[in-house]
Amino acid sequence: MSYQSVFDDTQALAEDPPRGSLLAVSIEGVSRVLFCATATVAGLGIVREVIIARIGEHTAVKDLRHIALNSEHCLGAWYQSTLMLVAAAILGVIAHLSKRHGHRFVWHWRLLALVFAYLAADELLAIHELVNAPLEAALHTEGVLYFAWVIPAAVLVGLFALAYLPFLVRLPKSTAIGMIAAGAIFVGGALGLEVVGGWLLSRSGGEETFAYMVAYLAEEVLEMIGVCVFIMVLLRHFVATWPDARAEMD
C-alpha cells in the first residue's frame, strides 16, 4: 500500500468519519456536560446550606431557597425533572426503533419511558407526598417509616424489579449492569436515604440538625447521579444497537 493511498484514506475519514465514531464522541461530550451540570447544581445546594448555617435566613439574601436541594420549585427540582424527561425521551426513541426492527420487550421500554415521565412530574409536584398524611394517620408510622410513602414505594420498586428481570437478562451485559447500577444509586438515594432522614427526624424532631442536612443533601445528589448514569447507559446502548441511528430516524 502506497503512502499516497494511506494519506487519501486518512483524509477521507477526517472529512467523513463513520457515524458510530461521531456518536461515540458526542456521548463523551454529553457525559461531561451532564456531570458538570450535576456538580454545579449540587455544589450550589451545598453552598446554600453552608451560608444558611453560618449567617441564618434573616439576611439580605433571605434563605436562598431557589438553589436549595430539599424543596420543590427550585433549581435542584427543575434540574432533576429535566434529567428524567431526557431519560424518558431516549427511552421513547429506543422503544420506537425496537418496534421498527421487531425486537422484543418494546413495551418494557415504553413503560420505562412512562415511569420516567411520571418521576419528572413527581419531582416538581411532589405527588408522592399526597399519600404521606393518610398513611401516617392510618399506620401511626415513626422512626425509619417516618415518611410513610416509602412503604408503598418500596413494594412497587420490588415488584417492578422482579417484573423486569427477564428484560434485564436478555439485554447486553454492559447495558444490564449499567441499568442495575443506576437504579441502585437512584433508589439508594430516593428511598434508602429518605428512610435514614425519617429516622433522624423522628429522633431529633427538626430539620435543622447537621445529620439531617447531610442525609437530604446526599439523597438529592445520589438521585441526580443515578439519573445521569442511566442516561449514559441508554445512550451507549442506543449507539451499540443502532450505529446508523441518524439514518434510522429519517
Provide an overview of this structure.
The protein is an all-alpha fold and 250 residues long. It has one domain (18-249). The protein is 77% helix and 0% strand. The chain contains ten helices and no strands. α2 (19-55) packs antiparallel against α9. The protein is globular and about 60 Å long. It starts with a helix and ends with a helix.
Features of the shown structure:
250 residues, mainly alpha, disordered N terminus
- Count of distinct structural domains: 1
CA-to-CA gap between the ends? 37 Å
Give the count of helical stretches. Answer: 10
**Roughly what fraction of the amino acids lie in strands?**
under 5%
Low-confidence stretches: 1-22
Mean pLDDT: 83
Q: Helix coverage percent of residues?
A: over 70%
Integer-rounded radius of gyration: 22 Å
Order of helices and strands: HHHHHHHHHH
Number of strands: 0
Please give the largest β-sheet.
Answer: none
Tell me the structural class.
Answer: mainly alpha
What overall geometry do the principal axes of the alpha carbons give? globular
